[in-house]
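[Meeting: bench + compute handoff]

Bench side (C.D.) handed over the final construct sequence. Compute side (W.E.) agreed to return the predicted structure before the next meeting so the bench team could plan truncations. Sequence as handed over:
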Amino acid sequence: MQPPLIVRLRGVCLVIGVLCVALLGSWFAPQARADGAAAGGDLTVAQSLGARELTVVVRRAEAGPLRVEVVTHVGTAAGTLAVSAVPVDLGGETSTGTVELGDRPGIYAATLRVDHAGPWELTVSDGERTARIPFLVAARVVTPWERAAYGGFFAAGALLLVALGTALLSKRGWPTLIPVAALIAAVTVGTTGAVLSGHAPQPRPAGSLLDPTSGNIGDPYPERGLPLTTNYSRPPVNLTVRGQTEAGKPPEVALSLTDSATGRPVDDLLVNDDALLHLMVVSPSGRLWHRHPVRVSPGEYRVSLGLGESGDYAVAAEIARRGGGVQLLRSALRITARTDSGAADPTGSAPGGATVTVTEAVSGEPTTLTATFGGAADLQPWLGMVGHLIAVGPLPEGAPAGTAAATVPIWAHAHAMAPLPALGAQPPDESVAAFGPNVAFTFTFPLPGRYLVWAQAERGYSVMTVPATVDVRAGVPQ
């Protein structure tokens, strides 16, 4: 008959084996991504700062060093930009720096510092204008099942030592059963938590529904204390557009966003397709501007446009409001005198030979529009997409394009997507030139008639625009 100590040690070894199997199972289970690319990922925001069309990139905003990159495009003047990271809702230190823009388009960087998680504001100034870009510094989000996994395995490790000590020191067998039973319970909790962390729904990104604060940004479910009947959607936004002239400054277009219910400034916009606000303007002769006004204060945006024609300009603004989804706001702007700012248009014409071809366009049926920009497969993503398509119509006969575009029923902004990146990886940015030269769009024209369309893509840090018209015939009634 074997000594009782040997029997107890064998029992403990069996428990260790069970623990190892459980740990291996949890190791090979799908891993949680509660703090994946959405939390602490790169933030890219297009900004039309005066005559400069910039892309501002905040690299993985987490507490500590903060790398800020500014992408310039063809026609952007060299100079110095002052950048600052300013805390919004808690005491903290403002970090300042400069970005020296060179003569060549490309990427220029500075390093700032943020000292806590929560909402911040990045200011970018050229000495005359200051853009204020809201961004979030991510916190480590730990879900309840992750806590269970970590806590269960930590307790199992501690109880394993207790079980070994009890088996060696106790003269009776039953005291060893107590830490062993607790160890098995801890392993069960840890294994369950590990399995759930790989398969349970992940938390929503911070600030997607509720206004983020430094207190709730680390909470995986900040809305759980609200009533179940809470409606997260917010009222539509009212857009006011007006020309603005200040002494010593180029003319600008001012946009005011107000809440349609309260009349208060709207300051809860989310970055949508790499911009807080996409502004599309069509001149009386049919010229398109696709710009990205800078936020100068809550609900107030400014942009410089070379509006050289008198007449009515059609204006559309695409935004995404927190908890309210994407909205397309439309307005008009009348110019009665020349207000050309002299600013270079960063979204210029396409090279010779660029065309837009269309399959037979029938209302109510998907249509493929292919923009060919010529050259090699070296197009760069712009605003997170390989290509952009803007369609306006159907146009009434004989009316100027700008006047017609302000009243037509259809405004559309479609995209040609880049290939999806690997899980957890960042999508390709403007430093990647590997797409095209043919860019295909799929769009369904809901009404018959003639449409104005513009296809846009980027090559060599230059945004190209190809205009075209599309005649859509009536489909068969359903």
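W.E. noted at the follow-up: Confidence is low (pLDDT under 50) at residues 20-39. C.D. will use this when planning the next construct.
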